[in-house]
């Protein structure tokens, strides 16, 4: 479908290539145990995961700061579970979470296979809303860093996806023509609608089992990219 027109492929990182939920769960298993927080991990994650997604949406919309995101997603989770954790411990957990998250390196099934397939044919890049201090660590530890020519993050751009500025910065840094550029990501609002507004072609990786939509084609595993490129 895109094979004859695309020269540059831009990926989101978390929830698209890097298996955020699996790595995050492993990180929490480690830090909750080591800090003797008396909470069942499965129950914690059941509340934390949607809370975290909701706070990332607020963060994209500039409604909370990075610090508020890191604190509130934990505070709300513990409060919902009637688990008493001091502010000092919450701040310590928030700090340790960032320190240890990038030490886990699970990627989605098919990630290395599809990057090996694409690399000889296209220029590959990352556009991520993740924090600059850990995104490159994640990529290096999971052995996918070398596949990418440009890595654009929201702190570098000063804005977050879906703001058009971050997509335009990615085009400028990569030297790509938007009419020959494809954005692949998991988030309909940030990755798909944001990129389409600038003129990118898009492909939605449905990591969250969302309903079908008419904005672009949707894939359910990364190997399906081969049928488009």
Tell me the CATH superfamily of the largest domain: HAD superfamily/HAD-like
Report the top-level CATH class of the largest domain.
Alpha Beta
Q: Write the H/E string, N to C.
A: EHHHHHEHEHHEHEE
Distance between the termini: 7 Å
Write the CATH fold name of the largest domain. Rossmann fold
Class by SSE composition? alpha/beta
Strand content: 5-15%
Overall, the morphology is elongated
Number of helices: 9
Could you say how many structural domains there are in total? 2
* E-strand count: 6
Kindly report the spatial arrangement of strands forming the biggest sheet.
Answer: 3-2-1-4-5-6
Average pLDDT for all residues: 95
Query: Judging by the overall fold, what is the CATH architecture of the largest domain?
Result: 3-Layer(aba) Sandwich
- Assign a percent range to the helix content: 40-55%
Multimerization status = single chain
Uncertain residue ranges = none
Keywords: Hydrolase
GO molecular function, one term: 5'-nucleotidase activity
InterPro entries: HAD-like_sf (IPR036412), HAD-SF_hydro_IA (IPR006439), HAD-SF_hydro_IA_YjjG/PynA (IPR011951), HAD_2 (IPR041492), HAD_sf (IPR023214), PGP-like_dom2 (IPR023198), Pyrimidine_5'-ntase_YjjG (IPR052550)
Protein name: Putative hydrolase of the HAD superfamily
């Amino acid at each position: 479908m895109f094979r004859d027109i695309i020269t540059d492929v831009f990926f989101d990182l978390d929830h698209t290539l890097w298996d955020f939920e699996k790595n995050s769960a492993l990180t929490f298993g480690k830090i909750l145990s080591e800090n003797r927080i008396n909470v069942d991990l499965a129950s914690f994650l059941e509340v934390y995961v949607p809370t975290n997604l909701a706070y990332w949406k607020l963060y994209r919309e500039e409604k909370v700061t990075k610090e508020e995101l890191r604190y509130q997603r934990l505070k709300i989770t513990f409060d919902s579970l009637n688990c008493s954790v001091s502010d000092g411990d919450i701040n310590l957990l928030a700090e340790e979470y960032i320190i240890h998250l990038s030490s886990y390196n699970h990627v989605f099934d098919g990630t290395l296979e599809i990057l090996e397939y694409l690399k000889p044919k296209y220029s590959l890049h990352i556009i991520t809303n993740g924090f600059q201090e850990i995104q490159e660590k994640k990529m290096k530890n999971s052995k996918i860093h070398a596949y990418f020519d440009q890595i654009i993050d929201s702190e570098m751009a000063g804005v977050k996806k879906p703001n058009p500025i971050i997509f335009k910065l990615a085009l400028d840094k990569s030297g790509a023509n938007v009419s020959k550029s494809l954005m692949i990501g998991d988030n309909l609002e940030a990755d798909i609608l944001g990129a389409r507004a600038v003129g990118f072609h898009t492909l939605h990786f449905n990591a969250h089992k969302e309903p079908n939509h008419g904005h672009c084609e949707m894939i359910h595993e990364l190997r399906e990219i081969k049928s488009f490129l």
